[in-house]
């Protein structure tokens, strides 16, 4: 058969500057240059090969990951890479590992909840990976319901120690990545008990997980790997673990005490550091999750788009060339909205980076006014982006026909890696219900004249949005971004107000909330979709360089609403 480079033909027909579009995606020329340099570094090194992951047994797969992680750390030191460069290199290695939890959860927990002295003691060790940590919060019996955690940390007045204990089977720490084999330390969440009185689970405890010389568990600790997970390769490169305590003692000083301190006498003392500071870590983690969603979705869309350009089916006459799959409207209507969503999530992720900086500055200035809105916003965006991305990766597999089912397509493993995202760091439905509570409270405060802020500012125009009518007369009118934005605002406002009115009919608000929870989730999704569209719109208002970049980016915005009638977005 005669070789035909269909991708080259498609690229030559582009009505925009591909090189400049790379800058738009990266966020800045500097970020693109760093990403490009790290990508080439990883791609040119045979140690980082990943084509054999799906055929390796679990033990060899895990050993292979350890080799890659150790080699990556060696290269980071040898090349004296910056923190940004090191992060990009780890991303392009593209293999889930214990280091994801060490850098993504363990280190931020110490930074956000440890005192200055504790940070000075432990962070240098963590930065050099002389200690390797995990984040032990989730238990076998409780995940999203943090207040239901059963592990206890009881203060012993005589010895000035905390006694950590797992009183039930369901109190076993379950799922923490890096816990099963590798971690030497953990941040453990437990119920603080002093003189028989519980003080909630706000106590955070830092403890040695195993000895340095032989890496065996300390006395009283049962720890191990929880076994194979979904898919070949995928997250089986991570040692998700189980951890149980049998009256394990740790010094009182190993409680993370930035917000709450326990004195030698066993008194709980609130520090002068506001408790709300922990929200900064939450925003940071959720911002990363949203950014990861855009990257995962973009990879799936890239595979499906290239396949659609190369694959030909039907349409030939008299033995002529068949039609490229990408030219079929049915393929475009399924694929292009996913491409638009990848960009939309990218842009809202950029905004969340700004939001994290803004929240951090406000918290340091003891300004907590935006915290409820920020919490609802980040919870909702985590839920929306991860749910859409997980479903979209599977849709991309189906867009590639039977070939998408092959491990070699990259899509089965990508789906298996991403599948846990709608569950970890908060179950997506639970998070949407938190958003719904915030929206119901916002609506209830409108009659008092309290002005909504941030992403709920549109609620301040609720009276107009409840009555306005769409002035679109012809299809071209939808090309006006402000028209699209107001439609999303009107939909979100009307759904929230209608749910609030129905909720007010219940004598018991909690019973009403439980009864109306399915439609409350719908209102929360509408609000989150509005945030994504509004940030896409704001991106278009910026000066986007290059030939045709603004036009093509605007076209992507118009594709997003077309997809919004579907269940996922």
UniProtKB/TrEMBL annotation:
InterPro entries attached to this UniProt entry: ACOX_C_alpha1, Acyl-CoA_ox_N, Acyl-CoA_Oxase/DH_mid-dom_sf, Acyl-CoA_oxidase, Acyl-CoA_oxidase_C, AcylCo_DH-like_C, AcylCoA_DH/ox_N_sf, AcylCoA_DH/oxidase_NM_dom_sf
Active site per UniProt: 425 (proton acceptor)
Domain Acyl-coenzyme A oxidase N-terminal: 17-132
BP GO terms, sorted: fatty acid beta-oxidation using acyl-CoA oxidase; lipid homeostasis; long-chain fatty acid metabolic process
Binding annotation for FAD: 138, 177
Domain of life: Eukaryota
Molecular functions (GO terms): acyl-CoA oxidase activity; FAD binding; fatty acid binding
Compartments reported by the entry: Peroxisome
Keyword flag DNA-binding: no
Entry keyword annotation includes Flavoprotein: yes
Keywords on record: FAD, Fatty acid metabolism, Flavoprotein, Lipid metabolism, Oxidoreductase, Peroxisome
Acyl-CoA oxidase C-terminal domain sequence ranges: 480-543
Needed co-factor(s): FAD
GO terms for cellular component: peroxisome
Family, per entry: Belongs to the acyl-CoA oxidase family.
Name of protein: Acyl-coenzyme A oxidase
Originating organism: Erythroxylum novogranatense
Lineage: Eukaryota, Viridiplantae, Streptophyta, Embryophyta, Tracheophyta
């Amino acid at each position: 058969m005669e070789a035909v480079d269909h991708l080259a033909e498609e690229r030559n027909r582009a009505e925009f500057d591909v090189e400049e579009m790379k800058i738009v995606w990266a966020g800045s020329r500097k970020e693109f240059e760093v990403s490009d340099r790290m990508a080439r570094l990883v791609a040119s090194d045979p140690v980082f090969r990943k084509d054999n992951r799906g055929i390796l047994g679990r033990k060899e797969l895990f050993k292979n990951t350890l080799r890659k992680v150790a080699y990556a750390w060696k290269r980071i030191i040898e090349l004296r890479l910056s923190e940004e460069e090191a992060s990009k290199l780890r991303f392009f290695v593209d293999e889930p590992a214990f280091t994801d939890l060490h850098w993504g959860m363990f280190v931020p927990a110490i930074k956000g909840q440890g005192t200055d002295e504790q940070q000075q003691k432990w962070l240098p060790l963590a930065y050099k990976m002389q200690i390797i940590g995990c984040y032990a919060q989730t238990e076998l019996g409780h995940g999203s319901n943090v207040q239901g955690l059963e592990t206890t940390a009881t203060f012993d007045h005589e010895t000035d120690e905390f006694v950590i204990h797992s009183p039930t089977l369901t109190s076993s720490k379950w799922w923490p990545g890096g816990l099963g084999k590798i971690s030497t330390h953990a941040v453990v969440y437990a119920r603080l008990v002093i003189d028989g009185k519980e003080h909630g689970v706000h106590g955070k405890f830092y403890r040695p997980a195993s000895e340095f010389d032989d890496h065996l568990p300390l006395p009283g600790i049962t720890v191990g790997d929880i076994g194979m997970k979904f898919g070949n390769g995928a997250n089986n490169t991570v040692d998700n673990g189980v951890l149980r305590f049998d009256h394990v003692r740790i010094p009182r000083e190993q409680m993370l005490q930035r917000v709450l301190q326990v004195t030698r006498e066993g008194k709980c003392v609130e520090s002068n550091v506001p408790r709300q500071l922990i929200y900064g870590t939450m925003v940071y983690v959720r911002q990363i999750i949203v950014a990861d969603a855009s990257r995962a979705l973009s990879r799936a869309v890239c595979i499906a788009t290239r396949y659609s350009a190369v694959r030909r089916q039907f349409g030939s006459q008299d033995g002529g060339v068949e039609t490229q799959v990408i030219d079929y409207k049915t393929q475009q209507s399924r694929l292009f909205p996913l491409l638009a969503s990848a960009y939309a999530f990218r842009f809202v992720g950029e905004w969340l980076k700004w939001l994290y900086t803004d929240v951090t500055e406000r918290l340091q200035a003891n300004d907590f006014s935006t915290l409820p809105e920020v919490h609802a916003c980040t919870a909702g965006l985590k839920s929306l982006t991860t749910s859409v991305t997980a479903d979209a990766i599977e849709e991309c597999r189906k867009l590639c026909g039977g070939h998408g089912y092959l491990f070699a397509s990259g899509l089965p493993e990508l789906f298996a890696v991403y599948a846990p995202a709608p569950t970890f760091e908060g179950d997506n439905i639970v998070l949407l219900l938190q958003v719904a509570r915030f929206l119901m409270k916002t609506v209830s405060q409108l009659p008092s004249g309290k002005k909504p802020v941030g992403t709920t500012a549109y609620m301040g125009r609720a009276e107009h949005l409840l009555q306005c009518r769409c002035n679109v007369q012809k299809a071209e009118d939808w090309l006006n971004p402000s028209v699209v934005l107001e439609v999303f605002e009107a939909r979100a406002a009307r759904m929230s107000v209608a749910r609030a009115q129905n909720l007010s009919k219940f004598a018991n608000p909690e019973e009403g909330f439980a009864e109306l929870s399915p439609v409350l989730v719908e209102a929360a999704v509408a609000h989150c979709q509005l945030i994504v569209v509004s940030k896409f719109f704001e991106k278009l208002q910026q000066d986007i360089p290059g030939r045709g970049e603004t036009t093509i980016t605007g076209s992507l915005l118009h594709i997003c609403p077309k997809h919004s009638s579907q269940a996922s977005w």
